[in-house]
Each structure stands twice: as structure tokens, then as C-alpha cells.
Design goal:
Elements: H1 2-5, H2 11-16, H3 21-24, H4 30-34, H5 38-62, H6 67-75, H7 82-88, H8 96-101, H9 107-117, H10 134-146, H11 152-187, H12 192-204, H13 209-212, H14 214-231, E1 240-251, H15 253-258, H16 262-283, E2 286-291, E3 294-299, H17 302-317, E4 324-337, E5 340-342, H18 344-355, E6 361-364, H19 365-370, E7 376-382, E8 391-396
Helix pairs in contact: 5-12, 7-12, 9-11, 11-12, 16-17
């Protein structure tokens, strides 16, 4: 590849393009100067930084980037990631007119789907354009074809769920790299080139990754189908289903997290999420979402939700001396939309959390009547926000 690309530009050419400017000012030697070594150390630090930057630039040239592309990457604070970015999403960024020429869809259709997927302009996109690649255009065409089976509004609603889910996966992948790879490399004083190579390696791990998710997606679709079979209300209703819905949050977390260093907070949240998912898997519930220090889950039966609530409360009780869990459970008909649940049952459950004292799990009367053989104690009537009349509640006896 290097033979086809040719020799790299001279050091002077890199410098003339401004690719070393940020290393030649006073800030470049701040780390060395802070150690007390004086001007000589500053000069040595700048020289080492420049040598490391030149190694990076030559490596980037070897991967096919021009000086102009390097300058643009530096302008957008992506110099060390430019090669990895190209590996991550290869292909020309097309104008919408060029995309239409390569597609069977109209510009309105492409833009409609791109918007539903949550696609935004990225590096290299033409000015004022999303900059779809040919591969993305092909994917949108496939969704348009699949969508022929469904109504347009419902198909686009599904696409938005796919887009938001993929956005979360993408954000989680980036967070994983930053915390587990880039952060330690920076702390260890690794060179720009070493980190750029790690970025390229990490992005390369995505090659073919999506294809391996296919069996897992199919299993999750089947699990969702089986949940609807056991929660169906009658032979004709296809919007409402009967579920137990629960919320558990951590009293004291806000105060605790305000004193936590970022690294410790990240570890705490990781363990909190892991406990929630582990408990749900063991008890047959589904984690719907995690909102800060609160977990929402759904179960196909009330007794199962009792076990999930009990297990979550116990798991979180042992987590930290300065926090205590509390929860709320409700049971009844909910509307299924986009993988989430809606309706009065979903609204009342978190309100019960607000009414519960630390260590308490409050439930509605309807939940208690459906949750045999779980044991409950009367807990009076509560005037909860959003409901005109007081609600009779019971307290779950966990032991």
C-alpha cells in the first residue's frame, strides 16, 4: 500500500500545513515544566511531542490520508482518530442528489428514513448534507421494502426505535473505549501514534460484528412474542396487554453521587446496572430501562414481579451503607409501544415509589390480589400525583 501511496511528505510540509502548531507553543511543554525542570525540559518536551506527532502523521499518510485531510481532522479535534474514523464508516459521503441517483427511492423517502434513524452530518459530509454512504442508502432501501408489509406511520415508528437503540449501542461502545482504553493510555503517557493504533484496532473489531448479532436479535424477538402470548387480554385486542410493572430506586443516591469521583461513580453505576439485569434474568422479568438510579421492569405475572422486586431490593440493600432501595408495583392493562409500556398502571407504579419509605415495596390493591401466594400488609390510602382519588395500597412482606 505504501508503494502505491508514495513517500510521505517532508517534516517541513507537515509543519507548513500547521499540523505541528499546537505543539510548539508554551502549552506543549506544560507537563514537563510543571515538574520543575525549567526551560531545558520544556524544549526537550516539545521536541519529543513534535517527534511523536510526526510519527503519527507519517502513519496516517501510510493509511492513505492527504495533508488536506489531516488538516481538517486536526481542525475538528479528530487528528488521532481520522484513520479509525475512515475504517469505521468507509465510503464516500454522498449528497442527497447523488444518493438518489444510486437508489430506487426519492429524496423525500431517503431523508424521511435517515431522519427516523437519527442520522446526522458527520466528518466528510458535504456542506448542509447528512452525507449518506452507498451502504446506508442500500440499508434504507431494505427497510423501505420490509415496510411494504406495514402502515407507513407504524414502520417509521419502528425505525425510530431501531435508530435510538443503535445510537445507544454506539454511545456505549464509545464510552467503553474511552474509559477502558483511551483513559489508561493517556494516564500512562502513551504516544499519539499508539493511541491512534488502538482506535483503529477497536474500530476494526466492528467488522462483521452486526452479522453475529442476528441470532440474538431473533431470540429477543421470540421472547417478545412469547411474552405477548401470555399477557394477551382477549382474541381481538392488540394494543393492550396485561403486565405487572415495577420501579425501584435508591434513596440517598443523589447525595452520595455528588461526593463520588467520576471513576468511582462510573463503577457504581456499572455494578447497579449489572445487578438489575442479573436479577431480571434470574426471575424472568424484563428490564425496560434504567433512569439514573431507578430501574423499571415488567413481568408477565404479578407473583413473578414480587420475586423480582424482592431480589432487587435485597441486592441494592447490600450495595452501600449510605443508600437504601424502595419500590412500587402495579398490575393491569398497559399499552405496548416501541418496546416500552404506557398507561395508568405504568404511571402509578413510580408514584408508589415516592410514597414508600426506604426498604419498603408498595403495591396497588389490584397487584396484591393477582400476586398469589405473596403476602402483603395494608398500608392505607395515598393521594398520589396525577390521580384524582386516593389509592389503596399494601406493603409487600419480603421475609
Amino acid at each position: 500500500m505504501s508503494g502505491e501511496i508514495g513517500l510521505p511528505p517532508s517534516d517541513e510540509a507537515f509543519a507548513a500545513a500547521g499540523l505541528l502548531d499546537d505543539l510548539t507553543g508554551a502549552g506543549a511543554g506544560a507537563g514537563a515544566g510543571a515538574s520543575g525542570g525549567g526551560d531545558d525540559d520544556d524544549e526537550a518536551g516539545r521536541a519529543a511531542a513534535i517527534a511523536g506527532r510526526l510519527d503519527l502523521l507519517r502513519w496516517m499518510h501510510g493509511h492513505g490520508l492527504t495533508i488536506e485531510e489531516m488538516v481538517e481532522a486536526k481542525r475538528t479535534f479528530a487528528l488521532g482518530a481520522a484513520v479509525g474514523d475512515r475504517r469505521l464508516l468507509p465510503g464516500e459521503r454522498l449528497t442527497i442528489d447523488d444518493a438518489v441517483e444510486r437508489s430506487v427511492l426519492t429524496d423525500d423517502q431517503l431523508i424521511e428514513f435517515a431522519t427516523a434513524f437519527g442520522l446526522r452530518p458527520i466528518g466528510g459530509s458535504p456542506a448542509g448534507e447528512i452525507g449518506l454512504t452507498a451502504a446506508e442508502v442500500h440499508t434504507i432501501e431494505l427497510f423501505e421494502l420490509i415496510g411494504a408489509l406495514f402502515s407507513r406511520p407504524e414502520m417509521l415508528a419502528f425505525v425510530r426505535v431501531v435508530g435510538s437503540s443503535l445510537a445507544r449501542i454506539g454511545a456505549a461502545a464509545v464510552s467503553l473505549f474511552l474509559a477502558d482504553v483511551e483513559g489508561p493510555h493517556i494516564e500512562a503517557g502513551s504516544s499519539e501514534l499508539e493511541l491512534a493504533e488502538k482506535v483503529l484496532e477497536a474500530n476494526g473489531r466492528l467488522d462483521g460484528f452486526a452479522a453475529h448479532l442476528d441470532p440474538l436479535l431473533r431470540r429477543h424477538v421470540l421472547q417478545a412474542i412469547e411474552r405477548t402470548r401470555v399477557t394477551t387480554i382477549d382474541d381481538t385486542e392488540r394494543f393492550k396487554y396485561r403486565y405487572a410493572v415495577g420501579f425501584v430506586d435508591l434513596v440517598g443516591f443523589t447525595a452520595l453521587s455528588s461526593d463520588m469521583p467520576a471513576r468511582e461513580l462510573a463503577r457504581f453505576l456499572r455494578e447497579f446496572e449489572a445487578q438489575a439485569h442479573d436479577v431480571a434474568s434470574e426471575t424472568g422479568a424484563r428490564i425496560v430501562k434504567l433512569i439514573g438510579d431507578e430501574v423499571m421492569f415488567a413481568s408477565t405475572d404479578a407473583a413473578g414481579a414480587c420475586e423480582t422486586g424482592r431480589a432487587l431490593m435485597r441486592a441494592f440493600s447490600d450495595d452501600h451503607v449510605r443508600i437504601a432501595p424502595r419500590g412500587g408495583l402495579a398490575y393491569g392493562d398497559v399499552v405496548l409501544r416501541g418496546g416500552d409500556y404506557y398507561g395508568p398502571v405504568v404511571n402509578v407504579a413510580p408514584r408508589l415509589v415516592d410514597e414508600a419509605v426506604p426498604g419498603e415495596l408498595l403495591v396497588t390493591e389490584e397487584f396484591a390480589e393477582a400476586a398469589h401466594p405473596c403476602v402483603f400488609e395494608p398500608a392505607g390510602r395515598r393521594q398520589v400525583k396525577g390521580f384524582a382519588e386516593p389509592i389503596a395500597v399494601r406493603s409487600f412482606v419480603m421475609d
